[in-house]
Amino acid sequence: MSQNKLPQAAQWTTDRALKQVNSQPTGLSNQAVQTRQQQYGENALAGKRQTSLLEKFTAQFKDLMIIVLIVAAIIAAFTGEGIDAIIILLVVVLNAVFGVFQEAKAEQAINALQEMSAPNAHVLRNGATMTVKSDELVPGDIVLLEAGDIVPADLRLIEVASLQIEESALTGESVPVDKQLAPITDPSAGLGDLSDLAFMNSNVTYGRGTGVVVATGMQTQVGRIAGMLDRTQERKTPLQENLAHLGKVLTVLILVVAVIVFVVGMIRGNETLVNMLLTAISLAVAAIPEGLPAIVTITLALGTTRMARLNALVRRLPAVETLGSTDIIASDKTGTLTQNKMTVEKVIVDGDVLDAKQTAGATSEDDQGLLASLLLLNNDTKTIDDQLVGDPTETALVQYNIDHQVNPEDFLAAHPRVAEIPFDSERKLMTTVNQMNEANDQLWVTVKGAPDELLKRVTRIQSNGEISPMTDQLREQLLTINHQLAVQALRVLAFAYRPVTTIPAEMTSKQVEQDLIFTGFVGMIDPERPEVAGAVAEAKSAGIRPLMITGDHADTAKAIAVRLGIIDANDQAGVITGAQLDALSEAEFSDQVEQYSVYARVAPEHKVRIVNAWQQKGKVVAMTGDGVNDAPALKAADIGVGMGITGTEVSKGASDMVLADDNFSTIVVAVREGRKVFANIQKAIQYLLSANLGEVLTLFVMTMMGWQILAPVHILWINLVTDTFPAIALGLEPAEKNIMQQKPRGRSSNFLSGGVFGNIIYQGLLEGGLTLLVYWLALTFPVHANATQVHADALTMAFATLGLIQLFHAFNSKSIHGTIFTAQLFKNRAFNWAILAAFILLAATIAIPGFNGLFHVTTLSGFQWLIVLSAGVAMILIVEVVKLFQRMASRRH
Ligand code: ATP
């Protein structure tokens, strides 16, 4: 078995690996990359093979009904109905062409979607770090890995720093593997034992590393495992599945009607066997809604294109549908609700709260100066091209020093860092150890972090230049100051230090972050994003509940939540902390979940509990996330929302939608689009199915009454003209005005809910009824004496009515419940063109002498056209009145 063979790359030393792929630690040259891209092709797993246009075209004829129709037409040709047969075949071919067009369009949009969500990789080329699309990697590329990255190709690692990678997609083992550099030569080693390699599509969960690409695309380990490829298969959306089911039910029903029409028609004896057969089959072909799945896909796909323009990149098609039914939007605070642009506002030393701007003139000797140095010592900000680069919380601290005429680079050069414990959002602390004088005999441990966490580890306090023991009373006073700042929406960080003589042997939190000397607080403001308050209000009016999730202090979180309108200032409950959440059992939390809108001091693992609790209440939950630890919550949510700017590749990979601008209001915009897409699909379905019902009804009654019946070409032509253009154009309708004033439609709703099923039935009956009425009028009040001419007129008028009434009805379908007489009536340009094109095609078959003979119809007089058009207008008026009553009834509810 080839995949059990030990990959050669695992046995190479790091130097050998670089030589083997002809690379070097500074990376490939651009030239080499280009040549290799040609040689090795894309670094991508082969997805589903794209079908050619010709294959799509022939696939259109695989439908049994179509084959039967063609066979019948050929038989007709031999029995003397040559022209009929040719026209039927032409219409069938035209139908297939439109089918291909629809499918190709849907496929295009889906491909564009995949293109947009392609992951990135960080590489070293020509000695410079750059970000490239992962599918552009070639063997020999040097890839830089850090926590949150998805490994973009198979790598032989050449440098690691606490690197851990989770490889469950390949090995099934969910515990991350510690990576190292020594070659693995044991021939019995499995994939999971190859700790010197990193595999494509696995997730970096901790640490850093560098590796050289040894295999790309289908040559990688995942590329070789055939089963993995199925993942690229498109999933059907629940809507598409529902539709497929409905399609089957309708097919059976329509076939039954077609058989009845055929049998009764034969008994009546007005038509030849072949003609009657053709009519019955044409009816089946026209009435079976085979175009519906394509229309749904196109509408969904066009929706995603529009959403992408509005900064919401949908990664999976079903997400569009789910978005529209969102009940809960749980959002991170920093960066999504706020701007993540921190500024130091307040400095607290010696128990005094000072305005940051007023603290100029501090010297390195006093406590203000001491605090200012701690801000720099414990800080990962880099200066690149005179720009501060790093976490905004930290860049703000450096900026504070710059504003006070301290040069951070000079200061840090004099006090280099020798050890550290990185920040993590569980501990909410960060520690560094720096050299404090040139003799190198004194080191400082400096710790910064959340005040509540840091104060637990403090034993002394520095105040007015003196160090004294920390008392419970002092601690209480400090926590009170912290509270006073937090309620003003400030993020408060606490700072402490401890001199030591040697670097601690174990850099663990327990060993190092203890016995500290408290020095002061800094209060920072992170302004809200200006558009968020409006978006929160819009979400609420749409019956959607926004939740805030944050690592920040409860008071800070509440203050911002109140400003944004997420909770009311008087709301005493509303806020819960991670610690309080930990104290609740699943059952208790599930009972109380509806009370809380703000989750403070929470860690990523709490997010999964929040999602689960709401889902148990039957709610559709959208949840944001950016870190590698957020992936489980993003997957658990109905809509995982990733961050395009600050998000890690792993979190984006776990998301259904990625926000290009990290902005909360974009989620609300996407929900609005999702609702619109769903509504438009409902409109298209209502339009198409009621039209089909109208056709079936007309033919059925005509047969039963022993009247002349519409010919196969009539039915097929109407179906072609009215099915294709208006239905697709309805998918492009703009959103109705009140779309964000309605409650979410609920998890169990489908496209026939909300009165659509009933509408299909009565509107179908109405279309058929009006057509039959026009036919009956033409027979009963003839304008000619010649009986043949009277019949020809009646049939032509029935044909014209059945076709035109559908075009009029397309206008009705612009709004399922609302009146169509609004400013939006002619807003949809594509729709206007579609109706015009359909009208011309229909009218041409009747009005052009000679041509109309092919369709077995005659020209109509102005008066006759007037009757036909009146039926169309009646269709609009009657449906408007019914809608009015429906609205009145629902208001009374
Ligand atoms: P949100 O959860 O709203 O997006 P966040 O992601 O910034 O906010 P965390 O990063 O988990 O939240 O931060 C939690 C707390 O940890 C902060 O309130 C702050 O007190 C502290 N903190 C944040 N960044 C640092 C840092 N770089 N060094 C030390 N402490 C920090």
TrEMBL record:
Alphabetized Pfam families for the sequence: Cation_ATPase (PF13246), Cation_ATPase_C (PF00689), Cation_ATPase_N (PF00690), E1-E2_ATPase (PF00122)
Name all Cation-transporting P-type ATPase N-terminal domain ranges: 8-81
Give the source's domain of life in one word. Bacteria
Main location group: membrane
Record has Signal as a keyword: no
Keywords linked to the UniProt accession: ATP-binding, Membrane, Nucleotide-binding, Translocase, Transmembrane, Transmembrane helix
Q: Which SMART domains match?
A: Cation_ATPase_N
Q: How does it sit in the membrane?
A: Multi-pass membrane protein
InterPro entries given for it?
Answer: ATPase_P-typ_cation-transptr_C, ATPase_P-typ_cation-transptr_N, ATPase_P-typ_cyto_dom_N, ATPase_P-typ_P_site, ATPase_P-typ_TM_dom_sf, ATPase_P-typ_transduc_dom_A_sf, ATPase_P-type_domA, Cation_transp_ATPase_P-type
Task: From the record, give the transmembrane residue ranges.
Answer: 61-79, 85-101, 245-267, 273-302, 685-709, 715-735, 756-778, 790-811, 831-851, 863-885
Whether Oxidoreductase counts among this entry's keywords is no
> Where does it localize?
Membrane
Against Gene3D superfamilies, the record matches this protein to:
Calcium-transporting ATPase, cytoplasmic domain N, Calcium-transporting ATPase, cytoplasmic transduction domain A, Calcium-transporting ATPase, transmembrane domain, HAD superfamily/HAD-like
The UniProt similarity line reads:
Belongs to the cation transport ATPase (P-type) (TC 3.A.3) family. Type IIA subfamily.
PANTHER family recorded: P-TYPE ATPASE, SODIUM/POTASSIUM-TRANSPORTING ATPASE SUBUNIT ALPHA
What name does this protein carry?
A: ATPase
Gene source species:
Furfurilactobacillus curtus
